[in-house]
Amino acid sequence: MTWDVALILGIDGLANGAVYLLAGLGLVLIFSVTRVVFVPFGDIAAFAALTLAAFETGRLPPTIGLVMVLAALATATEVGSLLRRGEAKKVPKAILAWGVLPLLPCLLAWATARPGIPAAVQIAVTVLLVVPIAPLLARVVFQPIADASVLVLLIVSLALHFLLSGLGLLFFGPEGSRTAPLASGTIPLGDGFSVSGQVVLMVGSAIVLSGLFFLVFERTVAGKALRATAVNRVGARLVGIRPARTALLAYGSASLLAGLIGVLIAPVTTMYYDSGFIIGLKAFVAAIIGGLVSYPMTAVGALAVGVVESFASFWSGALKDVIVFSLLIPVLMLRSFLSVHSEEEEDEVDQ
């Protein structure tokens, strides 16, 4: 391997790492607030990419039908819960929140699904259209079992991924799609090297969004509520923070990140209805490196995963995923070695 090849692979790795960074932030956010390893995160990113591809061809995106089905299920779940608790007066508000508001992006998408619409409008509508997906899934699937163990939540999350894959095949079909580049041209680096505008856009977007993510957590009331819930759910409840609302905020924020990821990766790879699973898994590796709690370490892990994947694809394209996932072994061994096991925890396990 020459230095020229190493530089090209390193740049490609940074672009991949930027995507895994955003996905890892979304996974850590949801887990820290809700204890759910949100496996379907990558599926939402894939749906966003396929939605943008549908807009570019002037077709009505099938995501509209998916959101409508999820909105109907969430509305029925919420109304049924209110009726069982004898709170029938709250039913109209529930219908508005779970049945009407998620359909507003659908109406916007229906109005813009025609040729000649500016690309910026298509991107904005695409992101807005997928934002309700994670909160709706959370209301139907995770909120009723919010107090279950992490293992149960993980199993349910994995089952939900397979369900979404089936729905993706039903709504989007088996064909793959790729969109036009969001940024054209190249930026010269000297000595004959250049970086495509798409790569610069991906890395720049990751930096900007990570900065905004930090500012939201540090400077806004909603961000502080998310941090409080992540640190201590009981304490947050005692000071007036409702964990159910912060959970929905976390799911909505993660869904927004997934939509942006789908828009960024749609021009660089052909996306299928099930392409998001591998993206979510590699982001999960980055989140594990961060211990599912540390955002800076998750960012470092995401960049490491991207660079390792890029160089592994050069050495062996067939084994690149195996090499990336093998990073989990030394990380888990190191964390197990460094973690402190108290005698009380050992006694609880024995019991």
Which runs of at least 5 residues are low in confidence (pLDDT < 50)? 342-351
Strand content: under 5%
Helix vs. strand class? mainly alpha
Q: How many separate helices?
A: 17
> What general form does the structure show?
globular
Describe this structure in words.
The chain has about 350 residues and is an all-alpha fold. It has one domain (about 5-275). About 75% of the residues lie in helices and about 5% in strands. It contains 17 helices and 2 strands. The protein has a two-stranded antiparallel ribbon. The radius of gyration is 21 Å and the shape is globular.
Write the layout of secondary structure elements.
Elements: H1 3-34, H2 41-56, H3 63-84, H4 91-100, H5 103-112, H6 119-130, H7 133-142, H8 150-172, E1 186-190, E2 193-196, H9 197-219, H10 221-231, H11 233-238, H12 243-265, H13 276-289, H14 295-315, H15 320-325, H16 328-338, H17 343-350
Antiparallel strand pairs: 1-2
